Amino acid sequence: PDYSLSVMSAVSEPVAIITGAASGIGLALVKHLIAKGWRVVMADINDVAGLQAAQDLGSDRVVFHKTDVGSWSDQVSLFQRAWQWSGMGRLDLLVANAGIFRPDDICDTGSDDTPKEPALEVLKVDLFSVFYGLKLFVHYSKKNPQPSGKVVVTSSPTGIYPFPFGPEYCSAKHGVIGLVRSMGPRLQKQGIYINAVLPGFVLTGATPAAVSSLVPEDYLTSLGAVCKAYDMFVDDFTHFGQCLEVSVDKVYFSNPPAYCDEAQAF
Ligand code: NAI
To answer: Which of 43, 53, 57, 158 has the fewest Cβ atoms within 10 angstroms?
Structure first.
C-alpha cells in the first residue's frame, strides 16, 4: 500500500500509547507528555477510572481506549485506534507500563493429592503483554517510509534482584529486561529504541497499605523523579537496550557484564 498520502495527513504532534494509564505511574506520564505537547492514547483495563482521568485532563490531545494488555486482540484494536487517531501516519512512542502484583506462595500446593495451579495471570499481564505491544509497534512503524520510534518498558528493581514475596512478578520483570536487552541492538538498526525504566518504591494505587506503612518516607521515589527517568529515553536517541534504575532522586544505568557487548555483535 502507498502510505504517502496518509503520512501527509498525519497529526503534527508526536503520538504515544501509554498502557496502565488510568492511575499511578502511567497517569503521571500521560500528564507529563501532554504538558510537553504530545498526543497520548491512554490504555487501561479499568475503563471507569481511565475515562474519568482522560476527561479530567480536558485536552483534545488525549483519548482513552479500554484494553486488557494481556489480550492480543485487545492490543490489536488499541494499535488500530491509535493509528487512525494519529491520522494514520505516526506512532512515536509506546510506554508498556501496565502491571499487576499478585503474590502466590509456590510452596502452598494445597492439601489434597493434586497441587493447586500456580497463579500465572501476572506473567500474562506483566510479560506477554510487552511482547504483544512490541510486535505491534514494530509492525506499525514499518508503515512509515523511515521507521522510527521509542519503546519504554516499566520493569522494576525486582527485574534484576530476587524478590521472594512475588516470584511471578519478579520473573515477569526479569523477563521484560531480557526482551529489552536482547532486542535493543537489533531494533536500533531499524530505527526503534527500546529501553526499560526500573522505578524504586513509588506510592501508587498498586501499593498495598500494609507495605507502604513499612517503607520509610526517605526511601520513596516520587512520580516526578520517575517521569524524569522516562525523559532520558523519550527525548534522546543514544540509548537502546538499557535499564535505568530510579531510586529516590538518583538514576543509574544497570549494565550487564562486558562480555555481553561482544555477544551482541552476532
Ligand atoms: P497502578 O496500579 O497505580 O497502575 C497500574 C495500572 O495498570 C492500573 O491503572 C491498572 O488498572 C492497569 N492494569 C492492570 N491490569 C491491566 C491489564 N490487564 N490491562 C491494562 N491495564 C491494566 O500501579 P503503578 O505503581 O503505577 O504501576 C505501574 C507499573 O510500574 C507496573 O508495571 C508496576 O509493576 C511498575 N512498578 C511500580 C512500582 C511501585 O513502587 N509503584 C515499582 C516498580 C515498578
So the answer is: 57
Say how many domains are in the chain.
1
Residues 62 and 54: beta-carbon distance below 8 Å:
yes
Nearest atom in ligand 1 to the alpha carbon of residue 155 is: 44
DSSP H or E run through 47: helix 47-57
Closest to 20 (Cα-Cα) out of 121, 125, 134, 124: 125
Cα(97) to centroid of ligand 1, in Å? 6
CATH number of the domain residue 91 falls in: 3.40.50.720
Single-letter amino acid, residue 237: F
Distance CA 210, CA 159 (A): 22
3-class SS of residue 66: strand
Regarding the beta carbon of 23 and ligand 1, being less than 6 Å apart is answered yes
Q: Report d(CA 168, CA 93) in Å as an integer.
A: 27
Q: Do 154 and 148 meet the contact criterion of CB atoms below 8 Å apart? A: no
pLDDT at 145 over 90: no
Instruction: Give the integer Cα–Cα distance in Å for 166 and 5.
Output: 49
Is any ligand 1 atom within 6 A of the Cβ of residue 78? no
Nearest to 149 by CA among 191, 187, 181, 179: 191
H/E stretch holding 7 reads helix 4-8
ipTM metric: 0.99
Q: What is the pTM of this model?
A: 0.93
Segment 60-72, tens digit of pLDDT: 999 999 999 999 9
Query: pLDDT band at residue 2, thresholds of 50, 70 and 90?
Result: very low
Domain of 187, in residue numbers: 4-264
Distance 86 CA to ligand 1 centre (A): 25
Residue with the bigger pLDDT between 260 and 206: it is 206
